Amino acid sequence: MYKQGSQLLCTDLCPCSISDITKWDVDVAANLVTKPDGFSRLLDCPNEGISQKHESKYAVFLEALETEFDCAGICELPEFFMFSDVNKAEGPPQMLCKDAAISYVKNEGSKYSQLLMFAGIFAAIGVV
Asked: What total of structural domains would you count in the chain?
């Protein structure tokens, strides 16, 4: 979905509304098509081409990841946020959502695993 979005958002087919183009690398900025009344996210583009099934299944999740972790992309880092506002951060995304999610699970997951381990121990003791 990100690859498809990169071929549409901020092009002649779907100009984007980037408030400060200087936040992007000069070479990248030279290829972006922007307009003051342009679009701020991929799903707002006319004819964005994502099926309703994929939109309802994945787009909401990807938007939540982008919003929560200031990340974009899963395998490759795109030039801009696709499913949340292109202007939401200080320029282009700096981290893959895959890496942000893994980091979150590593940092926060141990808290929940310890709680579940103690709950399991108390449940086992109660059963015996």
From this structure: 1
